[in-house]
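hiii so um. not sure if this is the right channel but i have a protein structure encoded as tokens and i wanna go backwards to a sequence. like what aa goes where. can anyone help
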């Protein structure tokens, strides 16, 4: 048996036991895909990540990402949570204020926003690591496509709610069907038919469905978001980075250029905050994180 450094990190929050947890196996060398999938099934979190030495000299590390049922080429909250764990453990050192992650979707730059009074080019300090405010990841370039009227009707039946504009499939590695609802209250009151969402996801080749609605309190957050991925064994993802990035791609296509803050997770008791900024060149997702468990995993 081998002991491997392990952390569990809550992402998109600066308070423990909120946001979205990710399990991070910091020394995953020697584990094959079957073993990684078994560990991810055991943790039973929306994602578990495995840190490996990079193949690309431009990258600081390589990451493999697993749900309880499948491997993903990229995901947002596991990217931020894994980078946070690596920085806090002193296992990586930023270059020019950023890290570069290698994953199946390619190279993902992660910009470091230090806490007030810190710099982004520190020497890691044990045991607590550097003081961070948030990390920003640049999303893979999104690809958008329309769905036909029958798929929209199936979506609205599965949700039990009507979309206020044409839904879009957005592919950033994970593939989400994005639908806007009438308001944040409409989003929070959803009680979707998860079996129907799973069937639709398989029919359209989706990871799941992400819905959002404009907030009635824009001073608190611009949008409320929820993400459902039952086809991957995740009835509802508490706070989803890739889902929020796909919402940003959807908004950008509609010509809504701005930075904003989204809120997600209240429906499952995991209140999280996702910062979003985008322009014609790209989409960035930002958030804080907090380490809740630090120890060793025996594999």
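sure thing!! here u go:
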């Amino acid at each position: 048996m081998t002991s491997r450094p392990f952390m569990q990190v809550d992402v998109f929050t600066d308070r423990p036991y909120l946001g979205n947890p990710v399990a991070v196996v910091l020394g995953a060398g020697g584990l094959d895909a079957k073993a990684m999938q078994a560990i991810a099934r055991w943790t039973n979190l929306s994602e578990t990540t495995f840190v490996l030495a990079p193949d690309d000299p431009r990258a600081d590390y390589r990451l493999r990402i697993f749900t309880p049922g499948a491997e993903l080429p990229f995901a947002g909250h596991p990217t931020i949570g894994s980078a946070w764990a690596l920085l806090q453990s002193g296992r990586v050192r930023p270059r020019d204020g950023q890290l570069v992650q290698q994953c199946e979707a390619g190279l993902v730059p992660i910009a470091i926003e230090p806490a007030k009074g810190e710099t982004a080019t520190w020497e890691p300090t044990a045991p607590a690591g550097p003081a961070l405010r948030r990390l920003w990841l640049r999303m893979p370039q999104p690809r958008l496509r329309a769905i036909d009227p029958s798929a929209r009707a199936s979506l609205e039946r599965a949700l039990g709610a009507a979309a206020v504009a044409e839904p879009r499939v957005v592919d950033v590695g994970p593939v989400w069907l994005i639908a806007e609802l009438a308001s944040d209250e409409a989003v929070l009151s959803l009680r979707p038919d998860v079996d129907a969402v799973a069937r639709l996801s398989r029919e359209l080749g989706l990871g799941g469905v992400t819905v959002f609605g404009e907030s009635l309190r824009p001073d608190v957050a611009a949008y409320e978001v929820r993400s459902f991925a039952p086809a991957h064994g995740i009835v509802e993802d508490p706070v989803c980075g890739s889902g929020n990035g796909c919402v940003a791609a959807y908004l950008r296509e509609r010509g809504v250029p701005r930075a904003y803050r989204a809120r997600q997770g209240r429906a499952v008791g995991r209140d999280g905050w996702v910062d979003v900024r985008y322009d014609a060149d790209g989409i960035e997702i930002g958030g804080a994180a907090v380490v809740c468990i630090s120890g060793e995993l025996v594999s």
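oh and The chain has six helices and 18 strands.
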